[in-house]
Write a sequence for this structure.
C-alpha cells in the first residue's frame, strides 16, 4: 500500500480521457474496530496530507443532495490536498437493480465522481454486500479485515495498557493470566482502547 500511495503523486500515467483515472481509490471492509480508520490515517501520514473524514450520511440520501455533497467534498479535498475517508460507503457501492431508481441514481453519481477524482479516497464498509460490478475497475486496492482473534486482542490489550502506564496517569498492574482472560472477551479494537 505504501508504494501505491507514494507513487500516486509522482505517477506520470494518464488516461485517454483528460483528468480521468488519476485518483487512488481504496476499499477497506470489515467489522467495526479492526483498523480500517487507522489504515486511512496511515495512508494520510504516508502521503503527508491531512485526513478529511466524512460519513456517507453527511452527503444526503437523495441524488441531488448526494451530487452537491460530493462536489463540495471533492473541492475541499482538492483545496486542502487531503486524503478523504468516506466511512460507511455501502450506500454508494451497492449493486444497481431494476427496483430502486433512487439508489441506482446515487450509485451512478458516485461512479462518475470516482472516475474523475484525482486525489486519494479511502472507502470503508462494515458489510460485505453485493457491490456494483462497475466498482471493480475503479478500486485500486481492497483490504478485507477479519474479526480480531484472541491473539490480536491480547496484543491490543498489552499495547493499550503499556500506553496508559507510560502516560504516568494510570498504574497498570495486570497478571498474565488476567490478560489472557481479557483477551477471551470478543471485543473489537475500539472497545479495548476505551
Amino acid at each position: 500500500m505504501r508504494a501505491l500511495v507514494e507513487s500516486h503523486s509522482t505517477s506520470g500515467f494518464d488516461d485517454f480521457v483528460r483528468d480521468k483515472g488519476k485518483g487512488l481509490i481504496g476499499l477497506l471492509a470489515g467489522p467495526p474496530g479492526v483498523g480500517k480508520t487507522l489504515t486511512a490515517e496511515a495512508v494520510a501520514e504516508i502521503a503527508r496530507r491531512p485526513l478529511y473524514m466524512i460519513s456517507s450520511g453527511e452527503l444526503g440520501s437523495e441524488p441531488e443532495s448526494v451530487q452537491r455533497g460530493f462536489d463540495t467534498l471533492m473541492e475541499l479535498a482538492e483545496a486542502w490536498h487531503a486524503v478523504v475517508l468516506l466511512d460507511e460507503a455501502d450506500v454508494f457501492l451497492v449493486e444497481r437493480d431494476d427496483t430502486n431508481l433512487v439508489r441506482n441514481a446515487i450509485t451512478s453519481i458516485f461512479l462518475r465522481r470516482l472516475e474523475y477524482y484525482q486525489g486519494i479516497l479511502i472507502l470503508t464498509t462494515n458489510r460485505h454486500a453485493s457491490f456494483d460490478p462497475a466498482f471493480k475497475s475503479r478500486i485500486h486496492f481492497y483490504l478485507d479485515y477479519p474479526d480480531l482473534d484472541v491473539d490480536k486482542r491480547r496484543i491490543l490489550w498489552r499495547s493499550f495498557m503499556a500506553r496508559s502506564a507510560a502516560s504516568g496517569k494510570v498504574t497498570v498492574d495486570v497478571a498474565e493470566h488476567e490478560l489472557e482472560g481479557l483477551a477471551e472477551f470478543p471485543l473489537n479494537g475500539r472497545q479495548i482502547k476505551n
In short: The chain has eight helices and five strands. The longest strand covers residues 24-29. Residues 2-144 form a domain with the Rossmann fold fold (CATH 3.40.50.300).
